[in-house]
Amino acid sequence: MSGAYSTRMTTTVLSLGALASAISFVLAIALELIAAPIAAPIGPQQAATVGIIIVIATPAVSLVATALEYRGHKEAIVAMAVLGVLSLSLIIALTR
Amino acid sequence: MVGIGGGLVIVPMLTLLLGVPIQTAIAASLIGVIATSMTASAHYLELGLADRRLGLVLLLATVAGGITGGLTAGFLDERVLAGLFAVLLVGVAMQMLRQPKVVRTPAGPLTSGGLASSYFEPTDGKEVHYVARRFRLGAVASFVAGNVSGILGVGGGVINVPVMNVAMGVPIRVATTTSTYMLGATAAASAVLYFAAGVLEPLLAGPVALGVFLGARVGARFATRVSQRNLQLIFVVVAAVFAVQMLARAVGLT
Predict the structure, then answer these.
(1) Per the CB < 8 Å rule, is B38 touching A55?
(2) ipTM for the complex?
(3) H helices within chain B, ranges in order?
(4) What gap in Å lies between CA B161 and CA B204, rounded to an integer?
(5) Residues of B in contact with A1 (CB under 8 A)
(6) Are B54 and B115 in contact (CB under 8 A)?
(7) Is residue A35 scored above 80 in pLDDT?
(8) N or C terminus: which one in chain A shows less Cβ crowding within 10 Å?
(9) Which residues of A touch B57 (CB under 8 A)?
(10) To the nearest whole number, what is the mean pLDDT of chain B?
C-alpha cells in the first residue's frame, strides 16, 4: 500500500501515544477513586489533562514522523502542509 | 463493529443518559474519535491497508473542515446541535437499512490520472490495484466531513467512506481504513478549539477514551461472532431511539 516507504515510525508514535494517554487516564481514575487525600504530586484533573494533551498531540507528532518517513518526496511536503493547517487551530485557540 | 465510529453513540449516551451538556459531550466524543484513530490506524498501517498518500491529500481538506466545524459549534445553540444530531442519526440509520452497493474492486485503466496504489486483500491474499480519482469532489466532501466532525463530534467517516468508495473509486476496505487514519488529525483540529474554549472536561473525556481503547478490542472480537447485518440492525434501533430523544430535546419537549 504505502509502497517502499516504512510506516514504523508513524505506527510507533501512534501506539506510544495511545499507551501514554491510557496510563494517564487510568492514573486519573485511580486518584479520583482514592477517597483519602494522599501526598500525590498531581491530582486526577491534572493526570486526565496530561492524557488529553497527549491524545490531541499524537496525530500532529505522527504527521512529523510520516514526513520523516517520506523524506525527499512530495508526500513529506503534503504531511507538513497538513501539520501547518493543524497548527492553525492551535493558533486560533491561543489567540481567541 | 459497524464501522461508523463511536461518536454516534457516545454523544447521545452522555447527553441523554448522564445529563452532560451536548457541547461537553461532543468534545469528549472527539477525544474518543482520536483514540479510535490512534489504535486502529497503527494496525491498518502495519497491515498496509490504509492508503496513507491518499489520506494525506484529503487530510488537508478535512483538517480545515475540522477547524471551521469547531469554530461554528461554539455559536450554535444546544437545541440546534441536538436537532442536527438527530438528523445525522436518522441519515446514518437509513443508509445502513438501504445497504448501498459498494465498489469492491473499481474498474478502469490504472495508468491515466489519479493516484494509483494497491493492497493485499486479507480474505484471499490477492493484490488489488486501484486508482483514486476525482480529487476535487473528494476534497469538497472531506471538507464537509471535517465540518460534521467538528460540529457534532462523530468523525467524518459517514461521509468520507461512501465518497471515497463510490465517487473516487477506492475499494471499500481501503476507504474505511483510510478514513479511520484521517479521523485522528481531523478530530484533533476541533478538539484543540473545544479544549481552549473550556468545554472539554478531562475527567469525562479520559474515561471515554479509555472505554474506546477497551471497546475497540472487545468489539473486534465480538464482531466476528455476530453477523454484520444483525449489528447494523441493532444500531438502527438504538439510533432511532436516540434520534427521537434528541429531536424531543431540539423542540424543547425535554
Answers:
(1) yes
(2) 0.91
(3) 7-12, 22-47, 52-73, 78-98, 135-152, 157-162, 172-197, 202-223, 228-250
(4) 29
(5) 48-52, 117-119, 174
(6) yes
(7) no
(8) C
(9) 78
(10) 84
